[in-house]
């Protein structure tokens, strides 16, 4: 082939490299003809016959193209060619014989390149041709077929701008490019031009408009166009039925199906397939049975496609016997039929039957495909059998699907759900091709198993690999942020989402507010919540729950009032949060009002709501009402029993609480919280026998080694003064957490055993445990109560220097108290100024208390002044100072103090002052 011909055919390609060669991208599409170009074939055929009827043979050396071809033969080859290399050779032959400027052959060649999927070649032909209407139509069709809808619409707009004549084929082609909800406005625009050009009554375009509006999500517009059709054939009826079924309007699809038969049009197998696809719910069973009857009547019951759809329908309705019956009647059971039946059993928690079907399929010689493996792996999850899953995995390794992205993703999902993250990681890392879905599945596997650090690290690797993230990716990452309370990371991802093209929908908004709430950033959560224009009930739930979780109960109820003004409904989760807020605040009227709303909406007998009601009335001290509500609940679980036991224990009714625990044992098994709620309220030596009894029950239940239970036992024995029993429990614990050590230290501190506590603290450090802020509070308190100045100061210094823990008011207060107990009041005052903690009321009150003990009026007055300036409404500094002044008979100062209290509105506390006794 001469270089001139090559240059002539490819001269413009260098400036159009941005156009994708679809032959390279979509190799599997080579054998397919362009459906819309196919609509032009009759037109081309007619022109070819008229134009070429007088053709004479052309002799030429055509480089692979047979000599002696006449123009009609060349046109025939162009019309049928699907191999790009042969097509290009044919084009070279056309150039060689001088037909390349013939408009008819230009358009035929353009169509040929489109059919072969060679967009770059087709685009060149379009640019270099005379560009009549047929060329424009062909190029629009090519763009539409290969997913370049925007380019197709741009070409259509250029046609309008250049006043190119629009034909039926033009509109058929461009309407096909409007195939997504985002293209609805473009569809309206094309429709208006169609009307302007007088084509509204065309039956082909009428059906195309129905299809276009259906794909763009406007079912109403599609129905209007359907009813406007002058001649409705089986295709147009089927199209409309399909749109309704795909839009989850199965009942409407069924009514149209009945209407279609009523006007005498018999459904085809495609019609029947479409209407069946609209039935998903059990209440649609009667409609499904009627369509099934029509299928049998028309003789389609053995059709594999229709049969497979029926199996899917019955499977979704949990009618597995019917699904099996349809499957058994099929003459030709395809791999898809087997897949759908396997999936039906898997989705209905009959994993064993699904796995059996997989091996039966293998035995009868049907080769599984990717859908089979995905379904059977889901069945293994339903069966809760990782061993079956591993057997299937080994079977996959022996097939071509070992590296198939859909199958390997299903494997990652299965291993992740079973908690085998090592295997999930191995499968994922061995994947040859990873897409967004496989990455999302991998990230989710970690978050589902409580591991949050790995998803955050993997997310950045995902970006480095150029994988496109989507909403599910962000949801997994935000879940990881919530688990880690990673506030800064959440802010970063929030900004990324806002800067991306992703729509900030309800699920993302909820996840973001959830993280802010979990991190205690309630103001930030509130600001973002207020910025959301359309707030769903879920969003209100999350915001109110965040307030309640962080004890901002008043704000939660205020937000609920705003929610009611906006006419937002209630759900069970919301009621539970509100009842908790009411129980914390003791807002009786509000709580009872919410209770009434719960009754009205039928939530009061729901177990979560019922449990919250028991807790609320119990916290209010209304134990009889709590008991009555408890008795009326159906399906009481361990949480409900624990709620009742806890409220009785909190009010000191230990005997009653233990009675309920014994009664509970006949219904549900007590758990660690059952015992903890009782232990936490046994605090005097008079009830230590009950504590020992509960301890025995804990041992019998095998819960003694539970960290929380062991800690509660230590605390209980400490409260009862039995330090030996407390230490015995501590020493027997297999796993002594920091919490357990803290509890033991606190017990020694309360009993004034500071030296023992300090030695225990040293043992804790020797064990390699890292103390926290609570540890230091316990040991400083112990040193304070025992007057261990050197040890206390050493621990305080270690807290800051060795463990980088910033002391809080309570820690400073312990040091002030330690100096105070030793009479070192000036040193205590200097410590306050040296630490620059003059703004803490607690340290001044502590110092004032020490001055009262040691009768130091000078420092006491200064400490009182600081405390009163910081908290003028608190009666404690007045009472302590009054006692100090009284001891020193400073009556004028006492009178002035009395007047100051009256001015501050604290006159009610005067009766408590020693200075006035009986006034």
Automatic annotation (TrEMBL):
GO terms for molecular function: RNA binding. The lineage of its organism: Eukaryota, Viridiplantae, Streptophyta, Embryophyta, Tracheophyta. This is Pentatricopeptide repeat-containing protein. PANTHER family: OS07G0578800 PROTEIN-RELATED, OS08G0340900 PROTEIN. It comes from Ceratopteris richardii. GO terms for biological process: RNA modification. It comes from the Eukaryota. Gene3D superfamilies: Tetratricopeptide repeat domain. NCBIfam families: PPR (TIGR00756). PPR repeats lie at residues 132-166, 233-267, 334-368, 435-469, 536-570, 637-667, 737-771. Keywords: Repeat.
